[in-house]
Design brief:
- The structure holds two protein chains of two kinds.
- Chain A is of the alpha+beta class.
- Chain A has helices at 12-26, 60-69, 117-128, 165-169, 178-191, 240-249, 260-266, 301-310, 313-321, 351-360, 377-389, 401-409, 432-435, 447-458, 462-478, and strands spanning 38-43, 74-77, 82-85, 88-95, 98-103, 143-150, 153-158, 199-205, 209-214, 231-236, 254-258, 272-287, 368-373, 393-398, 415-420, 482-495, 498-499, 514-515.
- The radius of gyration of chain A is 24 Å and the shape is globular.
- Chain B has a single domain, classed as MetI-like fold (Orthogonal Bundle), CATH 1.10.3720.10.
- Classes of the chains: A alpha+beta, B mainly alpha.
C-alpha cells in the first residue's frame, strides 16, 4: 500500500458514519447554499480576526476579508503576472522617490461617500504616520506623505526608492473613505468596515460572525469583476473538526482550513467537492548558526550539512503535506522576485554522507538537540525519525506560534521548523530579508548577507536587486542557515455546485465564485 | 499489626482476604486485566511487532485487521506517519502505568505523612494540615496543572511531578480520619504507656494499619493520574511527541475522527480498559478488606 489517493478508501463503516452524520445533521439545517444564494463560510483555525481594520490585523483571514470588502489602487493579475489599474487608472514616476497617480471617477463607498483624491491622501497619510501604530510597519514605512494634486489625482512622496511598490499598492494597502474613517477611526472600522469592494458588510459580531452582501454599485468595470453570490456568511470556528462536522451537516458550505487527508475523504462523499492549491508559504528548518542559544553542535556547518542530508524532505512533502506541495531549495518561494533557483546549493537526501559528516565534525555518536515547532507535529515527528537514523536524538518542543516566536526572539531555539507565508507578497524582501537582516529572528548574524539583502530590498535597478538576492540565496544555502523544506498547500472543501478557484497567494476571492 | 475486629478468627486473616478476593467477581476481572496490561507494558520491547518510533511515510494510515484492505504486518494499522499502531498502544501502556505508579507513590508519601501527623498529633498540627488541605482542595486541579506544565515546559517528568504534588489530598483525608480512630485504640495507648516514641508509634503501630485504606485510595488516584495525563497530553501539555502516550494518540487522531475513527477508538479503548481494570481492582479491594466505610 503506497501513497495512492485515498478517496473512497475509507472503511465502509467510516463512510456510513460520515454520510449518516451528514444526513442527520442536514435535515434541520436551513436552505443550503444555492437555494438562498448564500455562501456560508467557516474559517478561524489560526484564531479569529483580531481587528477587521486591515491595518491593525496580522491574521491571514483578515487579509481574505479585506480583499472582498476594500479595493487597492493597483490590481495584481496573478494569472498574467501583471499589475492592472484598479482605483488608480494610470501612474507615472517623475523620479525614483515620487509617484503620480490618476484616480478612477464614479466609484462610491458602501456608505454612499464618493471616492476621490481626498480618500487616498487621507488613507496614505494616516498609515504613514508612525503615531497611528499600523501593525506591519514594513508595508507602509516607505510612504513619506501623499499630496492631492487634483480631484482625481495624487502624488506619493517616498522616504526611499521602493522596488516592491506595486506589490504593496495591490496588496496590503487598501483605501478607506476619509470622512468615515476620520470620524470612527480604527475601532469604528472594526465594528462596521466600509470600503469600495465587491462585498459590503452588513453585520459584524466581533470574533464570531460577519455577514457580507453583494455590492450592487460595483459596476464601474473593476478588474475584480462584480460579485455573483448574493450573501456571504462567515463564522469564526477555531476547531477544524467542528468545521468538518458543520460542513458534513450542512451548517456551512465552505472551509479552507482542512488537511490534505481530510480533503480526500470529504470529496469522496456525495454532495461535496474540493480543491487544493500550492501556496506561497514555505517551511524551513532553521539553525542557530550564530550560537545565540549557546548550543554548540549546530554552529558547525558540517553538522548543519549532516542534518540537511539526513532529512528526507521529498518524502515529507509527498506523503504528509501532499497535493501540489514540492521541495523548495531556496529561502524564498520560487515565484517571488529575486528568488533565483540556480543560486541555491541543493542538499540531496543522503543519510550515509550525513553520518560521515557528523563523525567528521566530532559527533560520531550523535547528540541530543531540542527541535521547536508549532505546525503539524506529524512533520516534526518525521524529521525526528530521520535524525534518529543518523544518531541525533531530537526532542520535540511543540507549542503555539506566539510562544515559539517569543522564545526565538530570546534566542533560545537551536533548531526550529517554522514557515512563512510572506503576506502573499511576491517579492523576496517579504521573507528572506525579514529573517536575515540582523533582527530578532536572525540566527545567522551574517553582516555581509544582511548588506546584500539591504541592496536587494532598496536598489532601484531590478538587475542589481536580482544579483544581490542571488548572492544572499547562495550564502544562506551553502552555509545552511536555513534548510528550505517544502511549499505548503491549502485545501478547500465546499458543497457541490460552487464554482471555485484557488490561488497561490492563499487568498480566496469570494467575489469571483458563483453557483453552477 | 492487623486490626483483628474485621476477622472472626484471628488465625489466618490473610487467607480469608485472599479467599474473599477470589470470590469477588469484579476484583478478579479487574486484577486479571490489570495484570495483563502490566505484563504487556513490561514486555513491550519483546512482544511489540515493530519499533513504535519507526516511521514509514509510504505506509501511513493503514487500516486495522477488521478492514478488507488491512496489512497483516500491522494488525491495528498505522498512524499518520506510518508507525505501527499496535506497538504504540503497547508502549503507551508503559507511559500510562509509569505515570500512574510514580504519581501515586509521590502523592501517597506526601498525603499519608501529612494525614498521619494531623490525625495523631491533633490540635494545632491538625488545624494547619486542615488549612493546607482546604487550600489544596480549593485549587481547580486540572487548570493549575495545565498552567504549571505550560509555564515549565511539558515532559514526562514534569507531568509526574505536577500530578504527584497535587493528588495527595485523598491520601491525607483518609489517613487523617483513620489515624484519629486508631489513636484511641488500646494497643496504641499501650505502646504510649510503655514509653514508645512518637516515631515508633507512627511507623510501627499506625502505618501498618493504614496499608489497606491507602491501597484503595491508591487505585482511585492512579486512575485519576492516568486520565489527567491523557487529558494534558490530549491538549498538548502532557508528554511530548513522539512518545507513545494514549492521550497524545487520541489528540493526533482527532483530524481523522470522521473518516478513520479507529485511530481514536483504539487508544480510547485501551484507556477505557486500563481505567476499568484499576477501578474494578480498587472497588474489590475496598469490599474485601472492609475498608469502604472510611472512604
Amino acid at each position: 500500500m503506497t501513497n495512492t489517493p485515498r478517496t473512497g478508501k475509507s472503511s465502509p463503516i467510516a463512510t456510513v458514519c460520515a454520510t449518516a452524520l451528514a444526513l442527520t445533521l442536514s435535515a434541520p439545517a436551513a436552505l443550503a447554499g444555492p437555494d438562498d444564494d448564500t455562501l456560508r463560510i467557516a474559517w478561524g483555525a489560526t484564531g479569529p480576526i483580531d481587528n477587521l481594520d486591515a491595518y491593525f490585523n496580522t491574521n491571514r483571514t483578515g487579509i481574505w476579508f479585506a480583499r472582498n470588502v476594500w479595493d487597492t489602487l493597483v490590481f495584481r493579475d496573478l494569472e498574467n503576472s501583471s499589475y492592472e489599474p484598479l482605483l488608480a487608472t494610470s501612474w507615472t514616476f517623475p523620479d525614483d522617490k515620487t509617484m503620480d497617480l490618476t484616480l478612477r471617477e464614479g466609484v462610491v463607498f458602501h456608505n454612499g461617500e464618493p471616492f476621490n483624491a481626498d480618500d487616498v491622501v487621507f488613507t496614505l497619510n494616516f498609515i504613514a504616520d508612525p503615531d497611528n501604530g499600523v501593525l506591519t510597519r514594513n508595508n507602509v514605512d516607505w510612504i513619506e506623505r501623499a499630496e492631492r494634486t487634483g480631484d482625481y489625482s495624487v502624488r506619493i512622496h517616498m522616504t526611499r526608492p521602493m522596488p516592491q511598490i506595486f506589490e504593496l499598492l495591490s496588496g496590503p494597502i487598501v483605501i478607506y473613505p476619509d470622512d468615515y474613517y476620520a470620524e470612527v477611526g480604527p475601532s469604528g472600522m472594526n465594528e462596521m468596515p466600509v470600503g469600495t469592494g465587491p462585498y459590503r458588510v452588513t453585520e459584524v459580531v466581533p470574533a464570531e460572525r460577519y455577514t457580507l452582501e453583494r455590492n450592487a454599485d460595483y459596476t464601474w468595470g473593476s478588474p475584480k469583476g462584480e460579485a455573483s453570490i448574493g450573501t456571504l456568511e462567515v463564522r469564526e470556528i477555531a476547531d477544524v473538526q467542528t468545521q468538518v462536522a458543520e460542513l458534513l451537516g450542512g451548517g456551512i458550505d465552505f472551509t479552507a482550513d482542512i488537511s490534505s487527508d481530510q480533503l480526500e475523504q470529504i470529496i469522496g462523499l456525495p454532495g461535496f467537492d474540493g480543491a487544493q492549491s500550492e501556496t506561497m508559504r514555505i517551511s524551513y528548518l532553521g539553525f542557530d548558526a550564530a550560537g545565540r542559544s549557546e548550543f554548540e553542535p549546530v554552529q558547525d556547518v558540517r553538522v548543519r550539512e549532516a542534518i540537511a542530508r539526513a532529512v528526507n524532505r521529498a518524502a515529507i512533502s509527498e506523503n504528509l503535506v501532499r497535493g501540489d506541495s514540492r521541495v523548495v531549495n531556496t529561502p524564498c518561494f520560487p515565484t517571488q522576485f529575486g528568488c533565483d533557483q540556480s543560486a541555491a546549493t541543493v542538499w540531496e537526501y543522503d543519510p550515509d554522507a550525513a553520518r560521515a559528516l557528523l563523525a567528521d565534525a566530532g559527533y560520531p555518536d550523535g547528540f541530543s538537540i531540542d527541535l521547536y515547532s508549532y505546525r503539524s507535529p506529524a512533520w516534526s515527528e518525521a524529521i525526528i525519525a530521520d535524525l534518529a537514523e543518523i544518531g541525533i536524538d531530537a526532542k520535540l518542543n511543540h507549542m503555539g506560534y506566539f510562544a515559539l516566536r517569543d522564545l526565538q526572539h530570546e534566542g533560545k531555539t537551536p533548531l526550529y521548523l517554522m514557515d512563512w507565508g510572506s503576506f502573499s507578497i511576491n517579492d523576496m524582501s517579504a521573507i528572506t530579508s525579514r529573517f536575515f537582516t540582523l533582527g530578532p529572528d536572525d540566527f545567522a548574524r551574517d553582516d555581509e548577507l544582511a548588506a546584500w539583502l539591504d541592496t536587494g530590498d532598496n536598489a532601484s535597478d531590478p538587475d542589481k536587486r536580482r544579483a544581490a538576492y542571488a548572492d544572499a540565496i547562495g550564502r544562506i544555502t551553502s552555509e545552511i542557515y536555513w534548510l528550505p523544506m517544502f511549499s505548503h498547500v491549502r485545501s478547500y472543501a465546499y458543497v457541490d455546485g460552487l464554482n471555485f478557484k484557488g490561488f497561490v497567494d492563499e487568498i480566496p476571492r469570494f467575489y469571483a465564485y458563483s453557483w453552477n | 499489626m492487623i486490626d483483628e475486629q474485621d476477622t472472626p478468627r484471628a488465625a489466618a486473616p490473610g487467607r480469608v482476604v485472599l479467599r474473599r478476593m477470589l470470590r469477588h467477581g469484579s476484583f478478579t476481572i479487574g486484577a486479571t486485566l490489570l495484570g495483563v496490561i502490566i505484563l504487556i507494558a513490561i514486555f513491550a520491547p519483546l512482544i511489540a511487532p515493530h519499533d513504535p518510533y519507526a516511521t514509514d511515510l509510504t505506509n501511513r494510515l493503514l487500516p486495522p485487521f477488521w478492514h478488507d484492505d488491512s496489512d497483516p504486518a500491522h494488525l491495528l494499522g498505522t498512524d499518520r506517519v506510518g508507525r505501527d499502531y499496535l506497538s504504540r498502544v503497547m508502549y503507551g501502556a508503559q507511559v500510562s502505568l509509569v505515570i500512574g505508579f510514580l504519581t501515586v507513590i509521590i502523592s501517597c508519601v506526601i498525603g499519608s505523612l501529612i494525614g498521619v501527623a494531623a490525625g495523631y498529633f491533633g490540635g494545632p498540627v491538625d488545624a494547619l494540615v486542615t488549612y493546607i488541605l482546604t487550600t489544596r482542595l480549593s485549587l481547580p486541579l486540572f487548570l493549575v496543572a495545565l498552567a504549571i506544565v505550560a509555564l515549565s515546559g511539558s515532559s514526562l517528568t514534569t507531568v509526574i511531578l505536577v500530578l504527584g504534588f497535587f493528588l495527595w489530598d485523598q491520601f491525607a483525608v483518609v489517613t487523617r480520619s483513620v489515624t484519629q480512630q486508631l489513636r484511641s485504640q488500646d494497643y496504641v495507648k499501650a505502646a504510649r504507656a510503655m514509653g514508645a516514641s512518637h516515631r515508633r508509634i507512627i511507623f510501627r503501630e499506625l502505618l501498618p494499619n493504614l496499608r489497606e485504606p491507602l491501597l484503595v485510595v491508591a487505585t482511585v488516584e492512579m486512575a485519576n493520574a492516568i486520565i489527567l495525563e491523557a487529558s494534558l497530553s490530549f491538549l498538548g501539555f502532557g508528554v511530548q511527541a513522539p512518545l507513545p502516550s494514549w492521550g497524545l494518540m487520541l489528540s493526533d487522531a482527532r483530524e481523522f475522527m470522521f473518516f478513520d475513527p479507529w485511530l481514536m477508538a483504539i487508544p480510547g479503548c485501551a484507556l477505557f480498559v486500563l481505567l476499568l481494570a484499576i477501578n474494578f481492582t480498587g472497588d474489590g479491594l475496598r469490599d474485601v478488606t472492609g475498608r469502604g466505610a472510611s472512604l
